[in-house]
Specification:
This protein starts with 14 loop residues before the first strand and ends in a 19-residue tail after the last helix. It is of the alpha+beta class and about 350 residues long. It is flat and about 65 Å long. Helix 5 crosses helix 6 and helix 5 crosses helix 7. It has three domains: about 110 residues, ATPase, nucleotide binding domain (Nucleotidyltransferase, domain 5); about 90 residues, Nucleotidyltransferase, domain 5; about 70 residues, ATPase, substrate binding domain, subdomain 4 (Actin, Chain A, domain 4), CATH 3.90.640.10. It is built from ten helices and 18 strands. Helix content is about 35%, strand content about 25%. Bound molecules: adenosine-5'-triphosphate (ATP) and magnesium ion.
Length: about 350
């Protein structure tokens, strides 16, 4: 650790925040709030390389497209996998959010705060910054997702007490202990909601010889999925293709099936939480014992997951308010005063070597 320069962040033009998730993007405009909430999906014509639709419209195309139209997700496990498409998608979301406010075309003066997973490599961080800049942003700051969550909840992360945040999204699970404005210990795991969907697809194929699509898997997970036996025993009808006969098939599946399918992945999430805690310095552990674990991200809404984690780890677990918007609300707070919160922000170009 060295001494770093703190330059005053000038306020000119517009400040925008983006939670650039594996499954969705939320855009926050300062003084305006959340203006965009759309899936991070892009439909592309392979023959012409043309983008046909972005966001909600593109999702409608998933699984229904002719062979030359591909619905892709340019972010995989929280990290940019297709730079060019990410840049175009960002530009689309930014332009769309511009239209919704009355400040005129201040686009090139925009300062952008973008969330990233914990412990991203320099190359990954640079890719986010470059994509945002070529999409029109003038200056880009990055913020790690759990830090944004803690900030949004106004947890005491500027102080020396430890705060434990676990964000379980679509692509990644991020478990992080934060103290004095920074992440002290973290684990970033590429197991989250998308993996649970894959688990369900695989399980139903193996057990019932039925092929279902990603959207069906997600729907059934949200409808009857549970992390532990809550005594509800719900069931759901699913439609898919019979793998032995090749014909359409309807099947009733049980809550217990879904639970069995996703349990191995849930255990990996619990291991990551446990591992993070094991590496946490004892002084911070004692803070966490009293404050507990804060759960955020869409997958924290899986029924019984909070209790499963609590039972296994032996700490109280609280789901934060509106867990799907927790990251963007934290970014929104940072946007209100970038100077006050600059310790939490990563700006690759501003970081100077120690003097
Ligand atoms: N009620 C629910 N029960 C279970 N899972 C849910 C529920 N609601 C949303 N999800 C899941 O939450 C995930 C999306 O969460 P979130 O919006 O936090 O992800 P993200 O920010 O796009 O991804 P990441 O942060 O990993 O890049 C999806 O996998 C979705 O299926
Ligand atoms: Mg997220």
């Amino acid at each position: 650790m060295g001494i770093t320069f703190k330059r005053k962040i000038r306020h000119r033009g517009q400040e925008i925040g983006i939670d650039l998730g594996t499954t969705k993007a939320l855009v926050y405009v300062r003084n305006k709030g959340i203006v965009i909430n759309e899936p991070t999906v892009v439909a592309i014509n392979n023959k012409t390389n043309q983008i046909l639709a972005i966001g909600r419209e593109a999702v409608e195309m998933i699984g229904k497209t002719p062979p030359h139209i591909n619905a892709i997700r340019p972010l995989v496990n929280g990290v940019i996998s297709d730079f060019e498409v990410t840049e175009k998608m960002l530009r689309y979301f930014l332009e769309k959010s511009e239209k919704k406010n009355f400040l005129g075309n201040l686009f090139n003066w925009s300062r952008l705060v973008v969330s990233i997973p914990c412990g991203g490599t320099e190359v990954e961080k640079r890719a986010v910054e470059d994509a945002a800049k070529s999409a029109g942003a003038k200056e880009v700051f990055l913020i790690e997702e759990p830090v944004a969550v803690a900030l949004g909840m106004r947890l005491p992360i500027q102080e020396s007490s430890g705060v434990f945040v676990v964000d379980i999204g679509g692509g990644t699970t991020e478990a992080a202990v934060i103290s004095l404005g920074g992440i002290v210990v973290y684990r970033s795991l590429r197991v989250a909601g998308d993996k649970l969907n894959d688990d369900i697809i695989y399980y139903l194929k193996e057990k019932y010889k039925i092929a279902i699509g990603e959207r069906t898997a997600e729907m059934v997970k949200i409808a009857i999925g549970s992390a532990m036996d809550l005594g509800t025993n719900q069931d759901a009808k699913i439609k898919g293709r019979d793998l032995t006969k090749g014909l359409p098939k309807e099947l009733k599946i049980k809550e217990a099936d879904i639970r069995e399918a996703i349990t191995p992945s849930l255990n990996k999430i619990i291991d990551a939480v446990q591992g993070t805690l094991e590496e946490t310095p004892p002084e911070l552990v004692s803070d966490i014992i009293s404050s507990g674990i804060y759960l955020s991200g869409g997958t924290s809404l899986l029924r019984g997951l909070d209790k499963l984690i609590s039972d296994n780890i032996g700490l109280p677990v609280k789901i934060v308010e509106d867990p799907i918007t927790a990251v963007i609300r934290g970014i929104g707070l940072a946007l209100e005063d970038l100077n006050q919160y600059q310790d939490f922000l990563i700006n690759i170009n501003r970081e100077k070597p120690p003097v």
